Structure formats: structure tokens, C-alpha cells
Amino acid sequence: MLLLVFLSCFAVVYAGGGNFGDSCSISDNRLQIGTYQFYSDCNSVTYCAPNNTCAHRGCRKDDFPFGYPQDSDSIPPKCRRGQFCPDEMDVCQEVLSVGSACQMNRDDQCEGPPNFKELEDTTIRGLNVNGSICLNNVCMWANVTEGEGCVVQNTAYIGYTASGEFIDIVSRGNCRVGLYCDAQSLKCFQEKALDEICDADKECSTWNCLASGVCGTDLAFDHRVSSWVYAVVVIGILGGMFGTLVGLFFLHRKQRERERARRLQYWREQNTFHQNLSQMREAARASIMSLPANNSDESHMPMVQSTGHGSSGLRHHFEDDNNMEDYDDSIVNMQQLVEVRQSRDDGRY
Ligand SMILES: *[C@@H]1O[C@H](CO)[C@@H](O)[C@H](O)[C@H]1NC(C)=O
Ligand SMILES: *[C@@H]1O[C@H](CO)[C@@H](O)[C@H](O)[C@H]1NC(C)=O
Ligand SMILES: *[C@@H]1O[C@H](CO)[C@@H](O)[C@H](O)[C@H]1NC(C)=O
């Protein structure tokens, strides 16, 4: 039945290609085989007029009709209450009284009964429109009570799947809502509840007769999930959030500790370096102070003496220190200067 609703919505979508003013043939108007979509030679914004040319449409059935741009000002109007727009969409017409000819599945073309509030179908199954139904192209009211004679219309639709075509038979009747028209006895029967034996979807109040021959759950509404699913989802979301937070916390703590250890090591190195530098400066100052005031030939002393290894107590001191590798050239220069002075002192004294 959803298929019917779908089809009635898009009945004119796949129209012929005729543009406004092109010639067409009214005798080509038809319902497509298997889908029962309305077809004409004209395109989706025109209809085939009686003079066999494509003319602009005069009404629409849909709020958003196919084929028109969204901001188009040539969209034809919808028909007011008490009127309908036929499949051709040429012009609005007054609803038809009981017994009149109507177009296939266009229940809305038929005038509603006086007790339409009681008879109308409020489900989404499309059993009738406003209490009226178009069966075998005749307007009637869906007012037949249980056990009374009814009219039935079986329509075979062609469905398409990846593996090929299949036939879907839709059976409609003029029984009241809650009853179905049995195709053999042509009498109205009460719809069957869940797990009762059935032959067709229309017999089940859930609109779903399983292949096993019993009424199954309503596929259109079976979207409820039990509360434990919500609980699992909530736990999953919270667990994911806090798991991420805790994971990041430990990851960053490890990084922070590594960083702190590096800084501590750097501070120790710098401290050692600073102390060594102070000691060197002291030693240098002491050796400079101990020089005689008159040593103008100082620059002529050969530098070769400064390369003597192991002679300097300072050098031993530095070599014992593992952090010496990092010291820069200025330290080495300072050290050489001290050695020069000391070796010169040695030579002098
Ligand atoms: C055909 O009929 C339509 C609608 O009645 C009209 O708008 C159009 O002008 C006519 N075309 C010709 C060629 O007569
Ligand atoms: C339903 O049918 C009644 C009786 O014909 C009519 O007065 C009413 O306007 C209709 N309602 C709709 C929504 O078409
Ligand atoms: C039921 O509907 C039919 C038209 O389909 C009408 O002729 C008949 O009078 C209605 N019966 C009742 C009891 O309303």
C-alpha cells in the first residue's frame, strides 16, 4: 500500500518528452504496465490538450511538483477542498459522487460519505481517502461491515530487485477500516492479530503476513529498541569519553616526567659547568696575579709548550668530569691559556 501512495505521488514524473506546443496524441495517455504510472506524450510541465498539442498544466497534486524549478512562478495551483487534480493535471474538477468513474487508486477523486470522520483511514496504509475509495474505476464508500458483501480489486505490480522482477499483488476493498475484503467469499472479515494464520498482508492488522503464514510485526513501525540498548549506548559513549581522557592523562604524565628528568639533567650539567668555570677563572686569576709585572716578551713564547698533555692539574680535573664533552670552544681556549701560563711558570721557576 505504501507503494500505491508512492505511485500516486509520482504518477506523472516519467512523462513523454513533448514540450509546450509540440504535437501529442491523447490516445497515448495511459498507465504504464506494471507500475501504473500515468504516461502522456508531453513532458512533466505540460499535458496533452484535446487539440493534440502540449499545453501548460492547470493544476498540481503535489506541494513540490516534479519538473518545475524551485523558484518558478509558473507552478500551477493546487485544487481547493472539494476538488481534485486529475492524472493529466489539466484543470481542477469537482469531486465525483458515489458510482462515478474515477482514475485508478485516486480515492481523493471521490466524494466522502456523510460519516467520513468515522470511516476515514487515519493510518498510513492508504485504505481510503476521507472514507471514499476508487475500486475498479468506480467511486464508493469504504463502509461495508463485517460479514457483508464487498468489492475487491487485485492489482499485480511488477517489482524490481537486483536479481530480477517479482510480482507484488495489492488487494483493496471497500470494507470499513479494521476489516478486509476476502477475495474468495467477497465478504468483510476482521483483521488478524499478531501470530494468527494469514494468506495475504491485507489480512493482518500489522500489514505483514510472513512467509511462514502467520502475521508478523508491523515493519513500518517496528523501530522501537529496548531500553538496554540505550543503556549500552550511553555506557559506550561515557566509557569512550573517560577512556580517552584517562589515556591522555597517563600519556602526558609520562611525557612530563621525561621532560622533567631532562631539565634536571640539564640543570646539573649547567651547574657543574658553572662551578668548573668559576674554578678555572680563580686558577687563571691566581696564575696571572703570580706573574711578574715585567713580561713584555710574553707574546714571543712558543705555543708548542701548551700542547703538553697531562701537565695541568686543571686538565685532569676536567677530564674526570663526564660533562666535559659539552663544553664549548671558549672553555678550551681558557684552558689553553691557563696551561700556557702554568707551563711558562714552570719554565721560569
Ligand atoms: C490547444 O489547446 C490549449 C488548451 O486548450 C490552448 O492553450 C492552445 O492554444 C491550443 N493550441 C492550438 C494550436 O490551438
Ligand atoms: C470529506 O468528505 C466530506 C463529505 O463529502 C467533506 O465535507 C469534507 O470536506 C471532506 N474532507 C476532506 C479533507 O476532503
Ligand atoms: C455504503 O456505501 C455505498 C456506496 O459505496 C452507499 O450506496 C450505501 O448507502 C452506504 N451504506 C451505508 C449504510 O452508509
TrEMBL record:
<feature type="transmembrane region" description="Helical">
    <location>
        <begin position="228"/>
        <end position="251"/>
    </location>
</feature>
<keyword id="KW-0472">Membrane</keyword>
<keyword id="KW-0732">Signal</keyword>
<protein>
    <submittedName>
        <fullName>Uncharacterized protein</fullName>
    </submittedName>
</protein>
<keyword id="KW-1133">Transmembrane helix</keyword>
<feature type="signal peptide">
    <location>
        <begin position="1"/>
        <end position="15"/>
    </location>
</feature>
<keyword id="KW-0812">Transmembrane</keyword>
